[in-house]
Write a structure and sequence with these properties.
Elements (H helix, E strand, L loop, with lengths): L2 H16 L4 H28 L20 H22 L4 H11 L5 H6 L9 H12 L3 H11 L5 H7 L5 H11 L1
Length: 182
């Protein structure tokens, strides 16, 4: 291949690669990165202020699923989340952070607090309907049928409540049933 052929092939390759992603998609991705960087700066500045500089900045954003990262990465994000949450709790209720955190967690889980406070509970745990649904679950022979039965009432109960209702429940089964509810 002559140098002219190489230059021509390089030009064609460059042109092809330039046009492989629409410009509006590149712009959207770029905007999202910039927004995320701005959020990091605001969060880090706020945490630095709340902790009088005692907390190191958050250096990365989790952009993949939790299960796809290493345990070391999970520990990093857990530590940074705990530091940030404790800084906020300390500003709201100095010296009583643990009590406030316990009260918040008892009311609702993070991420679903608004959803759970607005969601209407369909079933009372002591209702005969729940007893019937539990019996139907226990008598079902396929996981598909069991999951469909669980999806009727799984979102009305916490994991511990569900395991009290049906002791053979596993975390995976509960998560599958709750996912089917959505």
């Amino acid at each position: 291949m002559s140098s002219g052929d190489t230059d021509e092939a390089s030009t064609v390759f460059s042109q092809a690669s330039c046009h492989s992603v629409p410009e509006n998609e590149i712009s959207t991705w770029s905007d999202e990165v910039q927004v995320q960087q701005e959020k990091h700066k605001v969060l880090n500045d706020t945490v630095q202020t709340l902790t009088d500089g005692q907390t190191s900045p958050i250096l990365s954003t989790l952009n993949t699923t939790w299960d796809d990262i290493s345990s070391t990465q999970q520990k990093y994000y857990q530590r940074k989340a705990k530091e940030t949450i404790m800084a906020v709790l300390s500003a709201i209720s100095p010296g009583q952070e643990e009590k406030l955190w316990h009260a918040v967690r008892k009311e609702a889980t993070i991420g679903s607090a608004q959803e759970s406070s607005t969601r209407r509970k369909s079933f009372d745990p002591s209702s005969p309907i729940i007893d019937s649904l539990v019996k139907a679950y226990e008598q079902a022979t396929s996981w598909q049928t069991k999951r469909q039965i669980l999806s009727i009432f799984a979102n009305d109960f916490t994991r511990p409540d569900l395991t009290n209702l049906i002791p053979s429940f596993t975390k995976w089964k509960i998560d599958q049933a709750k996912a089917a509810c959505m």
